[in-house]
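Dear Dr. L.,

I hope this message finds you well. Following up on our conversation about the binding site, I have prepared a predicted three-dimensional model of the protein together with shikimate-3-phosphate. For your records, I am including the exact sequence and ligand specification that went into the calculation, followed by the structure tokens. Please feel free to forward this to your student if that is useful.
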Amino acid sequence: MKRNIILIGFMGSGKSTLARILTEKLGWPGISTDARIELKEGRKIADIFKDAGETYFRNVEHQVVLEVAAERGVVVDCGGGVVLIPANMEALKKTGTVIYLSCAPQEIYRRINLQPKRPLLDVPDPLAKIQDLLKERQTLYAQADMTLDTTDGNLSRVAEEIIEKLKP
Ligand code: S3P
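The resulting structure of the complex is given below.
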């Protein structure tokens, strides 16, 4: 049975772009936990945070992780905070290889600035917030089976590396 490829990492680390490259190269389906949450809730992530709060969002995210963990042969692009609930990592690690995409905070900041605001980074000093959250989450991200750096933005190279490393 095929094992899943699970991408974790901070917002802006390249998870969704890399997931798309991997699904194209492998011909596997892709699942984004954020997209599933939005579908389930019928509203955008930013609105869930605004109207129901982060705890509510984390509960829905956990339900979605359990659903995704029942699938096989998929590439999973996880929301950056998925590591905050230990049971999420436990469930995901059982289904496949968890890959942490590390990225320098300055580069995350640059990328995030080009995209619509994430609720957690909609603050006066987003770079400081990125640095704080990265520090808080460092040991959690380090539980991944593999870490690959995406700071140079060459995600095709990262995809090749993953495919090479996961070859039987
Ligand atoms: C979050 C990351 C976001 C989204 C939500 C919370 C986080 O996903 O799940 O805004 O806590 O890091 P991306 O990492 O896909 O942006």
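In brief: Residues 15 and 77 are 6 Å apart (CA to CA).

With kind regards,
A. P.
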